[in-house]
Amino acid sequence: MAFIETKGVTLDLPIYDVQGRSLKKRVMSMGRRNTIAEDTDGVIVVRALDNIDVRFDTGDRIGLIGHNGAGKSTLLRTLAGIYPPTAGAVMRDGKVVPLLDISLGMDENSTGIQNIRLRGLLLGMSDREIRQKQDEIAEFSELGDYLDLPLRTYSSGMRVRLAFAVSTAVDAEILLLDEVMGVGDASFMNKAKQRMAELHGRAEIVVLAMHSNAEIRRVCNKVLWMERGRVRAFGSTEDVVAAYEEQVATT
């Protein structure tokens, strides 16, 4: 049975490019309420996550909500192991696949077919698995003969189609998603939505961050409300989303 759990997870991120005394002073003044501080070496440090205790189990479909900068994407990256916590621990059982940047690892000078392999390997797929899924990925992308051309010849829409086709072919026990982007015209969008539903269905646990409360209500059974790097609320979808919407409406 897959699970992922955080115990007292705290993450401090240093900011090395804050220069000039006036800018530094403004940043530090913000820190009075946004947990920005200065370490012993004079480096500005942002507390991006603060003492996070949550556990997700098999069958959970978790929606992350909160304002921009609340810590949703940072939490996903910490769950994925991209950011090691400054304090606390992340425990997991199951294959974790983060789809946080679907174009990550793709090479401008390689063909579409070669990029299927590159992106697949980055997502943890084996050579055998990639070979088995290559034809299906190519067909889904609808790129045809363009797959034999270098990625640099693609339009932005074509690049996203290819990246989406590869990324959603992966099999994960714990799937981490950050704001699925648009992938083309209306007909392809319909295909993409169906493919995302199938991807969700194959995973034992799904954790996703998005700004659409309607979509959160549709696909999630639990919601984690993040605020300034902390957990504001965690519980049933309707209870937490309703409380969040009430708070937004009064601010």
- CATH fold name of the largest domain: Rossmann fold
Strand order of the largest sheet: 6-7-8-4-9-10
Distance between the termini: 41 Å
Ranges where pLDDT stays below 50 over 5 or more residues in a row are 27-34
- Based on secondary structure, the structural category is alpha/beta
Chain-averaged pLDDT: 88
CATH architecture of the largest domain: 3-Layer(aba) Sandwich
Order of H and E elements: EHEEEHEEHHHEHEHEEH
Structural overview:
- The protein has 2 domains: 3-94 and 209-249, Rossmann fold, CATH 3.40.50; 99-203, P-loop containing nucleotide triphosphate hydrolases (Rossmann fold).
- By secondary structure, the protein is of the alpha/beta class.
- It has a 6-stranded mixed beta sheet with strand order 6-7-8-4-9-10, with helices on both faces.
- The chain has helices at residues 21-34, 72-80, 112-122, 127-141, 156-167, 186-202, 213-219, 237-249, and strands at residues 3-15, 36-38, 44-57, 61-65, 87-93, 96-99, 174-178, 205-209, 222-227, 230-236.
- Helix 3 (112-122) packs across helix 5 and helix 4 (127-141) crosses helix 5 (156-167).
